[in-house]
Amino acid sequence: MNIILLGPPGAGKGTQARRLEETRGMTQLSTGDMLREARTSGTEMGKIVAEVMDRGDLVTDEIVIGLIEEKLESGTGGGAIFDGFPRTLAQADALGNLLERHGQKLDAVIEMRVDDEALVTRIAGRSTCAECGEVYHDVTKPIPEDGKCSNCGGTEFKRRADDNEESLKQRLLEYYKKTSPLTGYYHAKGDLVGVDGMADIDAVAAEIDAILDKR
Ligand code: AP5
Ligand code: ZN
What we know:
By secondary structure, the chain is of the alpha/beta class. The protein has a single domain (3-26, 76-213), classed as Rossmann fold (3-Layer(aba) Sandwich). 49% of the residues lie in helices and 15% in strands. It contains 9 helices and 8 strands. The strands form 2 sheets. The protein has a 5-stranded parallel beta sheet, sandwiched between helices. A 3-stranded antiparallel beta sheet has the order 6-5-7. The longest helix has 15 residues, at 165-179. It is globular and about 45 Å long. Zinc ion (ZN) binds at residues 129, 131-132, 134, 149, 151-152, 154.
């Protein structure tokens, strides 16, 4: 099964994708994570990517489509959860073609709907485990009291360079301008299902599970 988690920055895409990896053995394909890895590589491409991400702009279609293509070539056991991809109509077309070429299809596009105000609070309180990438929130999912990651026991946590007010504003503008038209695109294909992303993490998870169980 292949699904897309579609939603603005902070909607909870990464949180739900990681859970689906654990519970359903699917593979999370997060272009954000891939790009963050690229920027630590010190290559020319990595430097360009870092600047674009820190501004809150979108990286070029060519780069992200290339990253996804590489992952699909190497196989996605248990099916793919596309997290943060596609983000433009050109990326959506490219994904359709790539899946077709690999004899696969899309089973659902899950749109996670969250108010802008809540997104700001979520991004401001987010931290991730430096070791395994588990996502925490100062209020809704605090780091355990013993200071150890509940998933891997790691003790180092970091905040993202683009999780500041200015970049977030730009990320939201980019989302509404370039990514939100994808809801119409996938609705027309009959693939779009909306979930209430304002609910708590477990309730959102239950809603997503109910959708996937029917596919
Ligand atoms: P990316 O890494 O994809 O970031 P994003 O889309 O901005 O999304 P986030 O990772 O910020 O949020 P999320 O929805 O995963 O939320 P999370 O689960 O962490 O992209 C970063 C940048 O890379 C882009 O700006 C762009 O430059 C570039 N890029 C990436 N993909 C690209 C592409 N395809 N094309 C071009 N450029 C691309 O949750 C957020 C917080 O809320 C956490 O603290 C979490 O604990 C908490 N939380 C989660 N769910 C809930 C809930 N239900 N209730 C309360 N709190 C919750
Ligand atoms: Zn961890």
